[in-house]
Amino acid sequence: MNWKRIILVIAGILVLIAGAAAFIYYPTYRFMFAGGTQTVDTVLTIVKGGGGNSGVLLTDSAVVVIDTKMGGDAEKLYNLARSKAGPKKIIVVNTHYHGDHVKGNRYYKGCDIYIGAYDQKFLLDDLGPENMPNHFVKDSLILFLGNETLCLYNLGPAHTWNDMIVLLKNRKVLFTGDLIFNKVNPFLVKKSGANVDQWIGALDRMMKMEGIDKVIPGHGETGDKAMIAMMRNYFLDMKVAAADPTKEKEMTAKYKDWMVIPMMTSPGVTIDYIRKQ
Ligand SMILES: [Zn+2]
Q: Residue 25: pLDDT above 70?
């Protein structure tokens, strides 16, 4: 075999590997980064892409941005919020500290940015000073913004140490952050403090909340309150499978239409995570 042939064979293998990777990861990429907006009503817009779902709410006194995305879509989201705000200020709420929800904070210089009460050194190391929030919500906080009332509840630890949900009280809309992955296997990492039992507890609290017509999950399509119970049932089923391997197949099959993120999330990954807890 001469060198030319060896190089051609290696190049062929590399193309095949790249093709296979693109084939495996394309659905995830599309799911995370496909853009688009959904107008809930005249003052509330859901913006997709850039990692997950964000909200832009126009009130009498400010524009509120819920989760600032990452990458190029983060800047687009900022520009949208800025154009809606005009002379009004922008207020940011981060539901949790993961990059797909906070890495656009850098565009909101001088704005009030709210997040749960994480250890601040941990946050600074993870996000960098340019994305660092400046208000830390320990339990709850209510923001009165003229015609709108925003209720921020820190329900963590669950998906991370401090997961915040945001209720737009007057519109009966709940932003759950990543406490809900709608028909997507959830992301569980020890480093972030993910705890399945506490996560179920947070979902229990959400189910008891009144005055919710619409639910905006961190990832996946928007819907209503039924989504909370669906996420809760997922974890209960995975707990059954984790405790009894003979049930694993049955429980996994129930969620065959839930999106899998290759190497990161699947029913099997969730079951393993529960077993190690
Ligand atoms: Zn997320």
A: no
Ligand 1 geometric centre to CA of 33 (Å): 12
Q: Please tell me the pTM assigned to this model.
A: 0.90
If you measure from the C-alpha of residue 193 to the centroid of ligand 1, how many angstroms do you get, rounded to a whole number? 14
Ion ligand 1: residue ranges with CB closer than 5 A: 52, 100, 178, 218
Torsion over CA of 146, 223, 177 and 185, rounded to 10 degrees?
180
The rounded distance, in Å, linking the Cα atoms of 193 and 3 is 51
Burial tier of 233 (Cβ tally within 10 Å: 0-12, 13-18, 19+): middle
- Rounded (5°) CA angle 269-274-277: 125
pLDDT tens digits for 222-255? Answer: 999 999 999 999 999 999 999 999 999 999 999 9
Distance 66 CA to ligand 1 centre (A): 12
**How much of the chain, in percent, has pLDDT values that exceed 70?**
94
Span 33-58, pLDDT tens digits: 666 788 878 899 999 987 899 999 99
Domains along the sequence of the chain with CATH: 35-225 (3.60.15.10)
Ligand 1 center to 87 CA (angstroms) = 30
Q: Taking a C-beta distance cutoff of 8 angstroms, is the pair 71, 77 a contact? A: no
CA distance 108 to 211: 31
CA of 34 to the centre of ligand 1 (A): 14
